[in-house]
Amino acid sequence: MTENNVLVQVLCLRKYFPLGGGLFGGKTGLVKAVDGISFEIRRGETLGLVGESGCGKSTTGRAILQLHKPTSGQVFFEDTDLTRLSAEELRRLRPKMQMIFQDPYASLNPRHSVGKIVGEPLVIHKVMRKGSQELEDRVAELLELVGMDPSYVRRFPHEFSGGQRQRIGIARALSLNPSFIVCDEPISALDVSIQAQVVNLMQDLQQQLGLTYLLIAHDLSMVKHVSHRIAVMYLGKIMELADRNALFDNPLHPYTQSLNSAVPLPVPRLERQRRRFILKGDPPSPAFPPSGCVFHTRCPLAIEKCVAVEPEPSDPYPGHTVVCHLADQSGRSKIPELGGRAEK
Ligand SMILES: Nc1ncnc2c1ncn2[C@@H]1O[C@H](COP(=O)(O)OP(=O)(O)OP(=O)(O)O)[C@@H](O)[C@H]1O
Ligand code: SF4
Ligand SMILES: [Mg+2]
Question: Residue 21 is part of which domain span?
Fold first, then answer.
């Protein structure tokens, strides 16, 4: 099903959660956390997935890994449709697909030593025996791989800084030799001063081990320098997906343009000229998404058609997909206030 250079293919994936009756004035229904998204992740690349809080990024990552059972749609990993696998078949494939979490404090068991945390997946998956020399050697190797002293095996998570704990989490995720890792906001809980170190480590590991990443983040500035391609998500849907440079130099979706206008520019002269466009209001609830284009309630360019008709994905440029009635090569979908910058 997947082409050779594609590792993961997501087809019309949906994940709806039942709406708690106590919330939303007792209304019942469904939270459309992920609502019909399709994209592919190529071998060895980092695909950034960006959008505001609650837009469905984590649910997407979890539904791809089948940690949330999708409501509908397919997820191909190499040639296997993960959504059709039995629990046992999934368990056998699980080592190849791992997740790194946002919070290195919450994701490590405080009562377990570093050695136990890092080696545990190998024991659970019966790759190595508990207490064996082989396991000890592998744990030491993994700690070295993430830049930590192997003598730390007997220490506990509270003895380490946030950055070191995230390294421990990464070592654990690597223990079973995965080829695909969902990185869910891996640095957003860390001190700004150490964020770059963890990002550099992840990039080095990608090169060294040929890893493929889905990198989830709130804002474009985090994924800007490390993603090969970027997908922008809003209210359960992908709004735009393009190569990193195309997305920054020529964002076609008004939502991407707004997010992009918030990213500081490294050159002081350009930064002084940077124009911002701040969207009004908050995103609507995914339990009650707007009709037509789900972005129409906040879009500065919305026309009558946007309220009634949901736009289809189009590719105004090769490999640059956008979901907007106005998006084409004429620049109709550019926010006037951002004018020159978006047209750059
Ligand atoms: N287990 C669940 N049960 C019910 N609703 C859920 C569940 N998990 C997520 N949701 C809802 O689905 C929507 C998407 O949540 P999700 O956590 O995927 O967003 P996110 O983009 O990762 O947000 P954040 O940036 O804050 O991490 C939200 O409205 C959330 O409340
Ligand atoms: S389809 Fe309409 S509402 Fe949606 S982004 Fe495009 S112009 Fe805005
Ligand atoms: Mg999340």
Answer: 6-109+178-343
CB distance 54 to ligand 1 below 6 Å: yes
Q: Which atom of ligand 1 is nearest to the CA of 34?
A: 14
Longest dimension (CA), the chain: 68
- Residue 200's CB is within 10 A of a number of other CB atoms, namely 12
| Substitution candidate for ligand 1 out of 32, 58, 71, 184 with most atoms within 8 A of CB | 58
Measured by CA distance, the residue closest to atom 7 of ligand 2 is 302
Return the pLDDT at 25. Answer: 60
| Residue 21 pLDDT exceeds 60 | no
Is the residue at 114 inside a domain?
no
Q: How far apart are the first and last CA of the chain?
A: 38
243-277 pLDDT, tens digit each: 999 999 999 999 999 999 998 888 999 899 889 99
Name the nearest CA neighbour of 338 among 259, 239, 240: 259
Residue 115: what pLDDT?
A: 96
Q: Whose CA is nearest to atom 1 of ligand 1?
A: 17
Q: How far apart are CA 245 and CA 253, in angstroms?
A: 15
Query: Would residue 329 count as lying in a domain?
Result: yes
DSSP line for 216-258: EESSHHHHHTT-SEEEEEETTEEEEEEEHHHHHHS--SHHHHH
**Mean pLDDT on 92-121:** 91
Q: Report the CATH number that the domain containing residue 51 is assigned in CATH.
A: 3.40.50.300
Domain count, the chain: 1
Decide if 119 is inside a domain.
Answer: no
| Phi, psi at 152, each rounded to 5° | -80, 0
For ligand 1, pick from 50, 57, 64, 235 the residue to mutate: most ligand atoms within 8 Å of CB.
Answer: 57
The answer to whether 227 touches 214, Cβ cutoff 8 Å, is no
What the block records as the tokens of 292 is: 């037509």
Q: Is the pLDDT of residue 171 over 70?
A: yes
Q: Determine, yes or no, domain membership for 192.
A: yes
Q: Is the CB of 57 under 6 A from ligand 1?
A: yes
Give the mean pLDDT of 283-306. 96
- pTM score above 0.90: yes
